[in-house]
Amino acid sequence: GSDRTLDRDCTTLSRHVLQQLQSFSPEAQDLSALMNRIALAGKLVARRLSHAGLMEGVLGFTGEVNVQGESVKKMDVYANDVFISVFKQSGLVCRLASEEMEKPYYIPENCPIGRYTLLYDPIDGSSNTDNNLSLGSIFSIRKQEGDDVDETASDLFTPGRNQIAAGYILYGPSTMLVYTIGKGVHSFTLDPSLGEFILTQENIKIPDKGSVYSVNEGNFWQWDESIREYVRYVHRTEGYSARYSGAMVSDIHRVLLQGGVFLYPGTREKPEGKLRLLYETAPLAFVIEQAGGRATTGHMEILDVVAKKLHQRTPLIIGSKQDVAKVESFIQNGH
Ligand code: P6P
Known about the structure:
GO molecular function, one term: fructose 1,6-bisphosphate 1-phosphatase activity
Order of helices and strands: HHHEEHEEEEEEEEEHEHEHEEH
Subunit structure: Homotetramer.
Structural class: alpha+beta
Organism: Brunnivagina elsteri CCALA 953
Strand order of the largest sheet: 4-3-5-6-7-8-9-10
Subcellular location: Cytoplasm
Bound molecules: 6-O-phosphono-alpha-D-fructofuranose
Main location: cytoplasm
């Protein structure tokens, strides 16, 4: 009846977090407030993206190159600043680390009491901005250990299992937010008329096996032979489809819902691959593991990898248990 849908429409993200934790402890309130801030950042980015083609200065490049040597799009800069502004007022976060910043951004008024660190990729797949294709933001929240007075952020160099929250925002035909705080994976859809993310699906479970493999086959000759052998295997095996969008948030969201596997393997030129551990592969691994899937470098679980540098890369094989195991079997036994 209407009260059920009304109840669902009132299941906002912040309320859902408190429901998940069945607690109103200070930590639970913190987490609820943090997720509410992520939602606000997502709304601000979504709004900008929906006007991208209509406003001056949104599309295209800034003419700069970021710390990764990649040309910076105006949307990258805008989205990066959105997260900083949103978390500045939060009082909760002392540091923000992102793909767009060489060093973490410290919020002095929140430090050192700021109990949390936000690690994020503000716009993942920014090459899709100018052609109106889907893209995403990826976030990871960790507790701050110690007061990091030397600003080395070395307390971040611990396994991804230490994340307390992680997820992504998918800017697609609708804007969705998918998150976990270690109690399953839940999705919310932005209702622009309400300006709220409304609960769409609780406790999402990834199928144990899927029919989609998602990898950039343009890199075929850059890969190890074992990855080429895996791709030859799916080419000759009935029932596999290739899907690759250029924005892994979209590709991994599809894998979460339909099953299958997304890969970004190492290449000759980049043996550790292209994706970043702390704010890309680790948060996505947390989500997929919580949904019953797996995420590995090919040799170890992503969530066990300990970063030595802020922008450390890892190869990524992520998705349904059986599909990830199939890729591993080629890497580990060469068949
Ligand atoms: P390639 C986007 O830049 C990104 O980080 C992922 O979202 C995407 O899957 C991948 O890189 C695309 O990289 O080398 O396949 O074009």
